[in-house]
Amino acid sequence: MGLAKRIIPCLDVKDGETVKGTNFINLRKAGDPVELGKAYSEAGADELVYLDITASFEGRKTFTEMVTRVAREINIPFTVGGGINELADVERLLYAGADKVSVNSAAIRRPALIDEIAKRFGSQVCVCAIDARYDADGWHCYLKGGRERTERGLFEWAKEAEERGAGEILFTSMDHDGVKEGYANEALAQLADNLSIPVIASGGAGRKEHFLDAFTIGKADAALAASVFHFGEIPIAELKQYLKEEGINVRI
Fold first, then answer.
1. d(CA 2, CA 10)
2. Any idea which residues carry the catalytic annotation?
């Protein structure tokens, strides 16, 4: 059956609160990140992702303290991202208790950051997050929370990230984010076929069937979602039971 597929709630953190938007804008509050993380851990989530979406200096301090609190409260692996530009940032977050770090904009600007993290801490610590949109000329990577287009193509950048030592690719389709009409399964499948490291699907979960499609059509190794979990639309235990009945190998 291969490795179990993972279900990963994602918590976007702004000024110490969990928030969620649609297409990267229109944020609304969703609760305390530590309490939510603890509830997800107890509900059967396999991992968590915390993203500091306003990683200014002050935000960083708040965020690092929150990471320490999360590490005390939960017993599943968690990844943190947002504002990671150098090894000192990685060290600070791992020391606070994170299991992995997610790099995005900084890695596109300076790809050697991936090599440095992998060499210093191991590939398993480095998640390369990619925010991409399907434009008239194909899939392109975006920076700064989706505000700035780059000339990097999704597939060639994901391949380079793998070659530089990233342990996983976290792909968010900006067009699908928060819309709840399913993941970008064709692009996911292409990534899965091109890469030998795990691919995490992000952006688009609205129903249990969407997770199933991400694992079957999209060939994803893990599926990440936010609002359907934060606002109680899909209980994790119920989702996993459904996936198991559909023949997906998940940890119950």
1. 24
2. 12, 131
